[in-house]
Specification:
The protein folds into two domains: about 5-120 and about 265-295, Leucine Dehydrogenase, chain A, domain 1 (Rossmann fold, 3-Layer(aba) Sandwich), CATH 3.40.50; about 125-265, NAD(P)-binding Rossmann-like Domain (Rossmann fold). The protein has helices at about 35-45, 65-75, 100-105, 125-135, 150-160, 175-190, 200-205, 250-255, 265-280, 285-295; strands spanning about 20-25, 50-55, 80-85, 95-100, 110-115, 115-120, 145, 165-170, 195, 210, 235-240, 260. About 35% of the residues lie in helices and about 20% in strands. Strand 11, helix 8 (about 250-255) and strand 12 form a beta-alpha-beta unit. A six-stranded mixed β-sheet has the order 2-1-3-5-6-4, sandwiched between helices. The structure holds nicotinamide-adenine-dinucleotide.
């Protein structure tokens, strides 16, 4: 196994299998579905894995810097860590190397400890790309309107460019953020012409597909970031919000006969790829999907 493992784990149970210890660093992560997916994948493969939540909201103030949390986890024999809000950029300063995707996006959601070094990956990028590839049938990817240029929007924008999108129009309430992301995408993917847009009617008219990477549509933030009347049957529509799985945007798109993609694919495949990086083994995607979906039931 391609991991750092504890030597004599589970002395209480006498279990002789190597123990893989991983976790998630983030703020307010108690409801994350990621630990469950990793545990289910490990159980299905017979891997003895623990997945800990290192929730800075649960730590006594002042919160330790992410560099300290990383150092402590490495010293305790963790194989790796997932990293989430608000540490995906900050963590880069504590790493020895970055994957191509992490470098492009400028953010890391998975750290692997290996041979005394720390490598950063961005499996959100991979997760969105894989979801797109497996969840939509023969869609036109030439021109896409992306709503939201925040943390997740960055991974989605670079993944869209990597998937062959030729024209990427980015809209965000923070226009400077959209323009900055457009410049970063063009620098990383010269084949993609990216720009910030304000006129959603014009952008939707020019787009083959529309992707929502704003928080609009979440249970606690109902609504849509684009007027549903701008959707046409020829559009494919993706949402990365996954609680609920059917957002108002996806419902409006389905009602108009559009092909749609929910946020589940990105959430599941980011975990699939992270599991591979942590353990060196290929997990059962169906097992992880069942676990992910069990949270909604
Ligand atoms: P973020 O706060 O970093 O970014 C959100 C961006 O959306 C901000 O730039 C904000 O200005 C913009 N925005 C908000 N409302 C808008 C509107 N009406 N029109 C245009 N722009 C608007 O958040 P994030 O980390 O990028 O996450 C965004 C959402 O993505 C989350 O709410 C979460 O549900 C979802 N998410 C899903 C996955 C997944 O795996 N499926 C992963 C990460 C995040």
């Amino acid at each position: 196994m391609n991991t750092q493992v504890s030597k004599n784990d589970n002395p209480a149970t006498g279990d002789a299998r190597p123990h893989v210890r991983v976790g998630l660093i983030g703020q307010g992560i108690q409801l994350s579905r990621t630990p469950g997916m990793h545990r289910a994948a490990a159980a299905a493969l017979g891997i003895d894995l623990t997945y800990d939540l290192l929730d800075t909201d649960e730590m006594s103030p002042p919160n330790p810097p992410v560099a300290d949390l990383l150092r402590q986890a490495e010293a305790e024999g963790y194989a790796g860590l997932n990293i989430t809000y608000p540490y995906k950029r900050e963590v880069i300063g504590s790493l020895d190397g970055l994957s191509d995707a992490a470098r492009r996006v400028g953010a890391v959601n998975t750290v692997v400890f290996r041979d005394g070094k720390r490598f950063g990956h961005n499996t959100d990028y991979w997760g969105f790309a894989k979801g797109l590839q497996t969840g939509l049938r023969e869609v036109d990817l030439r021109s896409v309107l992306l709503l939201g240029a925040g943390g997740a929007g960055g991974a989605v924008a670079h993944a869209l460019a990597g998937a062959g999108v030729e024209r990427l129009m980015i809209h965000d309430l923070d226009r400077d953020g959209a323009a900055r992301l457009a410049r970063e995408v063009e620098a990383a993917s010269p084949g993609c012409a990216a720009s910030a847009v304000d006129d959603l009617g014009g952008a939707a008219g020019a787009a083959d597909g529309i992707v929502n990477a704003t928080p609009m549509g979440m249970a606690k933030l109902p609504g849509t970031a684009i007027d549903p009347d701008l959707l046409q049957t020829r559009h494919w529509v993706a949402d990365i919000v996954y609680f609920p799985l059917e957002t108002a945007l996806l419902k409006a798109a389905r009602d108009r006969g559009c092909q749609t993609l929910s946020g589940a694919g990105m959430a599941i495949y980011q975990a699939v790829r992270a599991f591979e990086l942590f353990t060196g083994q290929v997990p059962d995607v169906a097992e992880m999907t069942t676990t992910f979906e069990s949270f909604t039931r």
